[in-house]
Amino acid sequence: MTTTRRDAIKTTGAFATLVSLGIITQAQANAAVSHDSFAVKSLEDALKAIGGQAASNDQVSVVSPDIAENGAVVPVGATSKLPNTTEMYLIVEKNPTPLSCAFTIPAGTDADVQTRLKMGQSTNVIAVVRADGKLFSASKETKVTLGGCGG
Questions:
Q1: What is the pLDDT along the chain (151 residues), one digit of tens a residue?
Q2: Strand order in the sheet with 60-63
């Protein structure tokens, strides 16, 4: 994938606007731009990119429908009741690029994120949480009736 000058200007402008409005910090914008982990093609590589294998923990949960009618817009989220949660990642196991999103959780904030993801087929959604420098995870299977990644 090549980046054109126009794409670079759009991305830089978008991040500059978010920083100027105080929505994200400059450090968060820099981390988001330089994060190559989203290009990996397998679950194992996605886990390596975020720091390694995560231990299963009942304090982490995935919020996802049992059956998604349309894989193009599946509402997915994650919550963590672990103290000192600093990062949350959502991984869609069978997607072409499994690492779907990453969130930085500021100190003193509830670790609860929600988004919409594209899912090409029925698969596991995995939430990986970094708390106290360690990785923890939970997963949930979501069945997709109409694929979102070209299906």
A1: 555 666 666 666 665 666 566 666 656 655 554 467 788 899 999 899 888 899 999 999 999 999 998 999 999 999 999 999 999 999 999 999 999 999 999 988 999 999 999 998 999 999 999 999 999 999 999 999 876 565 4
A2: 60-63, 74-80, 111-117
In this structure, the answer to whether residues 4 and 42 fall within a common structural domain is: no
pTM of the model: 0.75
Which structural domain range is residue 39 located in? 33-146
How far apart, in Å, are the Cα atoms of 148 and each of 25, 64, 99, 101, 151? 32, 15, 16, 16, 6
What is the C-alpha separation between 136 and 131, in angstroms, rounded? 8
